[in-house]
Amino acid sequence: MIKKILVSFLMLFSLISANDDFIDSYYSSIGERLSEWIPVGENEKATLNIFIDENGAFDYEFIKKANSEEFNNSLKNFLEKQKKIKYPVYKNKKIKIKTDFESEKK
């Protein structure tokens, strides 16, 4: 399910910057990294802001947590590991991406 959500924000940025191939590949790269997380539970959803600074440092904040602590803890553990990985930089700017992480719906 996460891949579907990330594709949505990728499409949004593609529409905004249709003439910028770099932004397409940049957000695709972010989406690929975040799609490595395997959701737990069913019918859960968390909304987050993802931040990548001009040095490639990753950070995040929960806007709205899921109802399941197992889901939230799994996501948090994954995102904490992402902080140790240098992310790609976009034109030496700080980037903020609002996105949803969801488990399968039943």
From TrEMBL:
Keywords: Signal. Pfam families: TonB_2. Residues 1-19 form the signal peptide. This is TonB C-terminal domain-containing protein. It comes from Arcobacter ellisii.
